[in-house]
């Protein structure tokens, strides 16, 4: 039985990953600051603690694991990342976690380590055109991420790749592009755009309106959680270290995303564009490299994933109405 450690196992992607690994027959240890918010953890063992602290890391990564998945980070949606108010915490907390973990991964000679990087590492100057952003893996340098979150992710990519070169630590690195689905954060300021849209529409009255930050012409792509997990596991089974994009190449404007959710809801709601934190003008996953190396591409449309996500968030909202 494969022995696996998932760091950030209380978060959205981490909790889903634990379930998938358990279904695949693995023994799974999880660790995070918090338990999963919306369902019990599926992990065989779960350590509640702060991975910034050495004593916690000594309890978490204290033996050999066949695979380690490092998803733990200080992160959130545009309302958290792009205000500038959380930059110091984002940089310090995430970097400290990665430094703590990579030291112990070497000490216990883990089989493979997966690191979840982000599309936020890509240069802002390549994402100024909402209709034609450039997010190919080789476009990361010269570097100019649009946020400190992106800079920290880029630093940590280099940290893990350095340890692979100098200490023979087998690493796999993926740059996630807006992963979404049920049981993710949907309120409080750290939620991503799909969850925020679903919440706003679910809470809006028929004939009302919802607010969308900016002019709504900024573009993104969004990948459903199950597709993300499939790509991650394929990467771990491969001999390719990455970094590689894991995302959808189905690009959509934020206004059209809002209209999609409104249509799914069956309500008659208008969109009001307001000033708010935005990030880059355009971002879309370039999937040429992952198709070449892993033979993977998403199989599910954005609409299908948004229908599932809206129904789940609508159920969460109902008690509050």
Describe the structure.
Helix content is 38%, strand content 17%. With 321 residues, the protein is an alpha/beta fold. It has 2 domains: 201 residues, Rossmann fold (3-Layer(aba) Sandwich); 92 residues, UDP-galactose 4-epimerase, domain 1 (Alpha-Beta Complex). A 7-stranded parallel β-sheet has the order 3-2-1-4-5-6-11, with helices on both faces. A two-stranded parallel sheet has the order 7-10. Helix 4 runs parallel beside helix 5, helix 6 crosses helix 10 and helix 8 packs across helix 10. It is globular. The relative contact order is 0.14.
Task: Identify the notable features of this structure and list them briefly.
alpha/beta, Rossmann fold, two-stranded parallel sheet, 10 helices, 13 strands
Write the layout of secondary structure elements.
Layout (H helix, E strand, L loop, with lengths): L2 E5 L4 H12 L3 E6 L12 E4 L5 H7 L6 E4 L7 H4 L5 H21 L4 E7 L29 H20 L3 E6 L2 E2 L12 H11 L5 E5 L5 E2 L2 E2 H13 L6 E3 L5 E2 H12 L4 E5 L13 H7 L7 H16 L4
Parallel strand pairs: 1-2, 1-4, 2-3, 4-5, 5-6, 6-11, 7-10, 8-13
Antiparallel strand pairs: 9-12
Helix pairs in contact: 4-5, 6-8, 6-10, 8-10
